[in-house]
């Protein structure tokens, strides 16, 4: 992305987080008719999250232990 985030949050109609699409998700589906796939087919469902009151140290630990590059705060 232009901002360099590399991910986008996917929400349900009620605003609940239901998944994320990362640049890695996109790369994993290249060559499998990506442009004909739905977001639901590409997204990571039930992504790791943190609450707004989560300590930064705890959030970083989750990122490191889960081998992820993005953590949604909900």
Contiguous uncertain segments of 5+ residues: none
Given the structure, what is the number of helices?
3
Mean pLDDT: 92
Q: What is the strand tally?
A: 5
- What is the rounded distance between the termini? 22 Å
State the domain count: 1
Helix and strand run? EEHHEEHE
| Helical proportion, percent range | 25-40%
Describe this structure in words.
With 74 residues, the chain is α+β, with helices and mostly antiparallel strands. The chain has one domain. 30% of the residues lie in helices and 23% in strands. The protein has three helices and five strands; from the N terminus they run ββααββαβ. The strands form two sheets. It has a three-stranded antiparallel sheet with strand order 1-2-3. It has a two-stranded parallel ribbon with strand order 4-5. The protein starts with 6 loop residues before the first strand and ends with a strand. The model has no long low-confidence stretch (mean pLDDT 92).
Outline:
The protein has 74 residues and is α+β, with helices and mostly antiparallel strands. The protein contains 3 helices and 5 strands; from the N terminus they run ββααββαβ. It is globular and about 40 Å long.
Tags for this model:
74 residues, alpha+beta, 30% helix
What is the element layout, followed by pairings?
Elements: E1 7-11, E2 17-22, H1 23-29, H2 39-42, E3 44-45, E4 49-50, H3 56-66, E5 72-73
Parallel strand pairs: 4-5
Antiparallel strand pairs: 1-2, 2-3
């Amino acid at each position: 992305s232009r901002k360099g985030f590399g991910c986008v949050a996917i929400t349900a109609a009620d605003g609940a987080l239901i998944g994320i699409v990362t640049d890695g998700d996109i790369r994993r589906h290249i060559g499998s008719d990506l442009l004909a796939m739905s977001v639901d087919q590409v997204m990571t469902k039930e992504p790791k999250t943190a609450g707004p009151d989560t300590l930064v140290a705890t959030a970083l630990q989750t990122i490191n232990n889960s081998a992820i590059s993005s953590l949604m705060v909900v």
